[in-house]
Design a protein that fits this description.
With 300 residues, the protein is of the alpha/beta class. The chain has nine helices and ten strands. It starts with a strand and ends in a 6-residue tail after the last helix.
Length: 300
Amino acid sequence: MEKFKSGFVALIGRTNVGKSTILNLLVGEKVAAIANKVQTTRTVIKGIVNRPNSQIIFIDTPGIHKPKHKLNETMVESAFSNIPDADVVLFVIEATSDEIGKGDRIILEKIKEANKKTILIINKIDLIKREKLLNLIDIYRKEYPFEAVIPISALNNKYKEIILDEIEKNLKEGPAYYDIEEYTDQTMRQLAEETIREKALKLLQDEVPHGIYVEVEKMKLRKNKNGEEIYDIEATIYCLRQSHKGIIIGKNGEMLKRIGRAARIDMEQNFGIKINLKTWVKVQENWIDNQSVVNKFKQQ
């Protein structure tokens, strides 16, 4: 009989290379917020994959970028701190690169320093020609003895088992750290905050920069008149400026209603329960440099 394996896998890469999309693909549940924006992931999110002979625990890290304020510094520190503790590192790069860029070079040096088993994932291969891909593989192969190089398009489900098989191959014998029913160690409150923030980022497009964070103030389970269970959730979206507040609320409150509706539908699907969601918007200037707020995004 095959021995059971387990381990922690750190997903690392520059901002916007598709790490959260890859995490959601591998876990098969909506764990990390996906928005086509730089720095969507602020906290370290764990996704859990249970297979017949293994349990794989994913750590999705904030994208590596040049820190401009306290929040950014905390995010970058948090990302790098996960490399030494991981059993396997998934290093995600974009297929569109012609060489090893500055950001990728910094990550590569950290991987070399930690000397970790690393799988190179080249994402967005649908955007380039084969020769370019082969050239990129060659450049990276000369830099580090990767366990495997897997070119993928994170939007295509067919790559899921290929990546998971490769990870499992590189794990050691070990116990299941989590109950096999679980797929994330985030609390429902964190998942609710993450979902609302994702919808806000998607619907606001580029009108409001990344200066928003969400706080769930109330989360209460009750039964409605028909005896069905329902969660009452009250959340505040904090933004940096008064002008941003107006954009988030929108004309006649329309934008805030759209954000709330989209978040509620997603949560009901994820939590498998009815949700009654109320959202407010408040201005909190300079929160990205406020240490007590920034601490929320530190690794738990």
